[in-house]
C-alpha cells in the first residue's frame, strides 16, 4: 500500500519586495574594514592564522526578512570559517551562520561575545570544500525562527527569541595554521510577510 503524495512545504513563505541591495561599491556601508576592501563589486575579508575578522553593514536594520549573499572562496582550507552575521546589534552580539572549508555548517548565538550553539556542525554537500569556489548563503528570518539555505537548498532551522532585529554582516576566521581570503558580493534583502 502506498501513501498519497503530500505537498512539499514552502520553506520561504511570504517573500515580498526587495528592501535593499548592495553592489559593494561604497566602502562606507561596511564597518571595520581595516586592510580589507570594497572594490570591483566585492567586499573582501582576509585574516592571518588565528584571526577572526567581521564587517557589519552600517545602515541596515531588519527584523522579518530574507537575505542572500554570495561568498567567493579564494584562500580557504580545512577548519577556516566564513559566513553571514544576522540581526547584529553590535560587533559582539549577533547570530552567526558558519561554513568551514571542510564542508560543514553550524549556527551560534553570540551575546556579548559569549557563544551559545543553536545548530551543531554537520557536513553538507552544499558547502564547498576549500577554494577556489563560491556559494550563495541565505537566511529567512521571521520572529524567533531562522531558516538557513546554501545555493537555494534548505539546510536547517534555528529557533531563538533573544535578538528580534539588527543589521547584517559577514566574517572570516582563519584556523591556527593557515590564512583565509573570502570575497562577498550580491547582497539582496527582501521583506517577508510573516502571515502570507
What does this protein structure show overall?
This protein has strands spanning 15-22, 37-39, 42-47, 52-56, 65-75, 78-90, 93-101, 104-111, 114-123, 133-142, 145-150, 153-159, 167-173, 180-192. It starts with 14 loop residues before the first strand and ends with a strand. The protein has a domain at 14-139. The protein is mainly β and 196 residues long.
Gap from first CA to last CA:
36 Å
Radius of gyration: 16 Å
Number of separate strands: 14
What composes the largest sheet?
8 strands, antiparallel
Number of helix segments? 0
Strand portion, in percent? over 45%
Question: What is the mean predicted local confidence, pLDDT?
Answer: 91
Low-confidence runs? none
Q: What pattern of helices and strands is seen along the backbone? A: EEEEEEEEEEEEEE
User: Structural class given helices, strands, pairing?
Assistant: mainly beta
The backbone outline, from C-alpha atoms, is globular
How much helix is in the residues? under 10%
Topology:
Blueprint: E1 15-22, E2 37-39, E3 42-47, E4 52-56, E5 65-75, E6 78-90, E7 93-101, E8 104-111, E9 114-123, E10 133-142, E11 145-150, E12 153-159, E13 167-173, E14 180-192
Antiparallel strand pairs: 1-14, 2-3, 3-14, 4-13, 5-10, 5-14, 6-7, 6-13, 7-8, 8-9, 10-11, 11-12
Key attributes of the depicted protein:
196 residues; mainly beta; six-stranded antiparallel sheet; 14 strands; 0% helix; globular
Give the gist of this structure:
With 196 residues, this protein is mostly beta strands. It has strands at residues 15-22, 37-39, 42-47, 52-56, 65-75, 78-90, 93-101, 104-111, 114-123, 133-142, 145-150, 153-159, 167-173, 180-192.
Amino acid at each position: 500500500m502506498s501513501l498519497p503524495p503530500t505537498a512539499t512545504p514552502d520553506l520561504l513563505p511570504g517573500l515580498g519586495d526587495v528592501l535593499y541591495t548592495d553592489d559593494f561599491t561604497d566602502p562606507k556601508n561596511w564597518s571595520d574594514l581595516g586592510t580589507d576592501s570594497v572594490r570591483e563589486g566585492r567586499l573582501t575579508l582576509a585574516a592571518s592564522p588565528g584571526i577572526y575578522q567581521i564587517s557589519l553593514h552600517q545602515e541596515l536594520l531588519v527584523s522579518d526578512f530574507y537575505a542572500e549573499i554570495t561568498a567567493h572562496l579564494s584562500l580557504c582550507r580545512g577548519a577556516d570559517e566564513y559566513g553571514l552575521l544576522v540581526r547584529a546589534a553590535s560587533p559582539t552580539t549577533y547570530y552567526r551562520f558558519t561554513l568551514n572549508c571542510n564542508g560543514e555548517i553550524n549556527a551560534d548565538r553570540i551575546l556579548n561575545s559569549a557563544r551559545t550553539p543553536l545548530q551543531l556542525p554537520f557536513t553538507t554537500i552544499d558547502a564547498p570544500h576549500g577554494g577556489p569556489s563560491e556559494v550563495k548563503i541565505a537566511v529567512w528570518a521571521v520572529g524567533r525562527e531562522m531558516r538557513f539555505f546554501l545555493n537555494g537548498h534548505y539546510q536547517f532551522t534555528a529557533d531563538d527569541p533573544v535578538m528580534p532585529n539588527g543589521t547584517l554582516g559577514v566574517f572570516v576566521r582563519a584556523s591556527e595554521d593557515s590564512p583565509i581570503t573570502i570575497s562577498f558580493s550580491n547582497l539582496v534583502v527582501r521583506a517577508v510577510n510573516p502571515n502570507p
